[in-house]
Specification:
Blueprint (H helix, E strand, L loop, with lengths): L3 E5 L14 E4 H5 L3 H13 L6 E6 L5 H14 L4 E5 L6 H10 L4 E5 L11 E8 L7 H13 L2 E5 L10 E5 L2 E6 L3 H10 L2 H9 L4 E4 L5 H12 L7 E2 L20 H9 L5 E5 L6 E5 L2 E3 L1 H10 L14 E4 L5 H9 L3 E4 L7 H5 L5 E4 L3 E4 L7 H15 L3 H12 L1 E12 L1 H14 L7 E2 L2 E8 L2 E2 L6 E2 L4 E5 L4 E6 L7 E11 L9 H4 L1 H11 L1 H5 L6 E2 L1
Parallel strand pairs: 3-4, 3-5, 4-9, 10-11, 10-12, 15-16, 15-17
Antiparallel strand pairs: 1-7, 2-6, 5-6, 8-9, 12-13, 13-14, 17-18, 19-26, 19-27, 20-21, 21-24, 22-23, 24-25, 25-26
Helix pairs in contact: 2-3, 2-5, 7-13, 10-11
This protein binds alpha-D-glucose-1-phosphate-6-vanadate and cobalt (II) ion (CO).
């Protein structure tokens, strides 16, 4: 065909290795000539036959979103993809994309997002590939894409005008059907199937105030439909609900550091009964009550303990899973409810097989991610609605709910310390130091206990038997306290070192300590062992959760 152009490049890009969740680089890097195109070409080559197939394309609205969608459409047209579905304005949250892939029986979804990383020309851009089950591409596929990209010197695209996606409609480009749809509708319909929104609406009308921060990112339009249109709250209680290319300068990572304004409203000013925020692409959530922060690991445990209050799960759940560094709070719930509980490596892609085979219904990560079998991604707004549904059923406050939970199941004091964007040599050094010490730690004193086990975590997938090694270094103590060290796979500058600390207190022990105090001996002992303060030249982590 005359309009199909074959573009040749001089040297392959050697750095297109997807991390924990997609390929993430600086916006500037992604603007480099042919950089995005080669990665997309690698993705399409990894997918096999494309004729007769549908692909979903959308993103979190960050700088470069629309241009990237247009390029992807041109490349897909050259590859004879039959149909592309794009949401209006190209705005699609990650959980909504996961839902659309499943609803429309698409072969894949290409999500343009660097998730919780800042956006704009000075920020980051990213590409996530989700496969036909709606979930993130598993490792054997991302490895294949990386391998293809490493020697790829050519890509093809169909040189044509691509319409704007401002309004819904159907367009034809060569043999390709381009369908522009409302990206919010199907997701909201799914939430209506799972939750009793009328019940939540009544509860919110009765002296229970809610505030939601969309952080100028993708959840704004979804939150507007759900909270304002369906639950009837005033839009004055939505913060930052217009998606902006640079997120208005915000770092759309819903934690106490980057969502500090919301945190201040709830924790210091105690202005609302309930506060929540989601990240750049809408898969993470932070839950706050009046004067009370819910650790995401506890959130997973509370959700698991209370599924009976949510219509979508009233017939029971099959099992649960958490990522390895996530606290074991959910394990206590699973034990009591007699549910299987799986431990996977960090990253949502590892939950896919367990969900598909119905071994689990609910899963989560300590990094503000919770979800279920309704899609194959973590889902920020779903988690917020889940909490509201439980609170509406129990007619209690967030702090009552969490305190009651601890009184039944005990409390896993938990904290994650992030040292963000430190020199890679320093981070690798600290990691290797611990790796080398692991074989000799057993029996050594550590904090107020002694080391029971220390290893580098490996995971054998129970469904496809694939083995994933080097998924984090663990020190497990005699009293079952855990210390974990990982290097982030989502950062783009230098390296980010993550330290995770956990200790369990029984219901009859103290349940209301500050986690930094409860975990102090573990934090100090790790610093003594690895000299983190000295080597990073930082007297405190960048982010403490
Ligand atoms: C982080 C989190 C991990 C999460 C991943 C993607 O990865 O720790 O739990 O799945 O981000 O989240 P890492 O490798 O930086 O620790 V998201 O919201 O980017 O899709
Ligand atoms: Co995200």
């Amino acid at each position: 065909m005359e309009n199909i152009k074959i573009i040749n490049i001089d040297e392959p890009f050697k750095d297109q290795k997807p991390g924990t969740s997609g390929l993430r680089k600086s916006t500037i890097k992604f603007q480099e000539t042919h950089y995005l195109e080669i990665f997309i070409e690698s993705i399409l080559l990894s997918l096999g036959e494309l004729e007769g197939k549908t692909i979903i394309v959308g993103g979190d609205g960050r700088y470069g979103n629309q241009e990237a969608i247009k390029k992807i459409i041109q490349i897909c047209a050259a590859h004879n993809v039959t149909k592309i579905i794009v949401p209006t304005d190209g705005i699609l949250s990650t959980p909504a994309a996961s839902n659309l892939i499943r609803q429309k029986r698409a072969i894949a979804g290409i999500i343009l997002s660097a998730s919780h990383n800042p956006g704009g020309i000075g920020g980051d851009f990213g590409v996530k590939l989700n496969v036909s089950n709606g979930g993130p591409a598993p490792e054997h596929i991302t490895n294949k894409i990386y391998k293809i990209s490493q020697s790829l010197l050519t890509y093809k695209f169909f040189d044509c005008q691509v319409p704007d996606f401002r309004n819904i409609g159907v367009f034809h480009i060569k043999n390709l059907i381009l369908e522009v749809i409302d990206g919010v509708e199907d997701y909201v319909a799914l939430m209506e199937q799972i939750f009793d929104l009328d019940h939540i609406r009544d509860f919110l009308n009765k002296d229970f105030s809610l505030v939601f921060d969309a952080m100028n990112a993708v959840t704004g339009p979804y939150a507007y439909q759900l909270f304002v249109k369906k639950l009837g709250i005033s839009e004055n209680y939505l913060m930052n609900f217009t998606p902006l290319p640079d997120f208005g300068g915000l770092h759309p990572d819903p934690n106490l550091t980057y969502a500090s304004k919301l945190a201040d409203l709830l924790l210091n000013k105690k202005k609302y009964s309930f506060g929540a925020a989601c990240d750049g692409d809408g898969d993470r959530n932070m839950i706050l009550g009046k004067g009370c922060f819910i650790n995401p690991s506890d959130s997973l445990a509370v959700i698991t303990a209370n599924t009976r209050f949510v219509p979508g799960y009233k017939d029971g759940i099959s099992g649960v899973a958490r990522s390895m560094p996530t606290s074991m709070a959910v394990d206590s719930v699973a034990k009591k409810l007699n549910l299987p509980c799986y431990e996977t490596p960090t990253g949502w892609k590892f939950f896919g097989n367990l969900l598909d085979s119905n071994k689990i219904s609910i899963c989560g990560e300590e990094s503000f991610g919770t979800g279920s079998n309704h899609v194959r991604e973590k889902d920020g707004l779903w988690a917020v609605l889940f909490w509201l549904q439980i609170l509406a059923a129990k007619k209690c406050s967030v702090s009552d709910l969490i305190n009651e939970h601890w009184m039944v199941f005990g409390r896993n004091y938990y904290s994650r310390h992030d040292y963000e964007s430190i020199p890679s040599t320093v981070a690798n050094n600290i990691y290797e130091n611990l790796f080398n010490l692991l074989p000799n730690l057993k029996g050594n004193k550590f904090g107020n206990s002694a080391v029971k086990e220390s290893d580098s975590f490996s995971y054998l997938d129970p469904i496809d038997q694939s083995l994933s090694s080097n998924q984090g270094l663990r020190i497990i103590l005699e009293n079952n306290a855990r210390i974990i060290l990982r290097l982030s796979g989502t950062g783009t500058k230098g390296s980010t070192l993550r330290l995770y600390f956990e200790r369990f207190n029984e219901p009859n022990q103290s349940l209301n300590l500050d986690p930094q105090i409860a975990l102090k001996d573990l934090i100090d002992s790790l610093d003594d062992l690895l000299e983190i303060t000295k080597l990073t030249k930082m007297n405190k982590p960048t982010v403490i959760t």
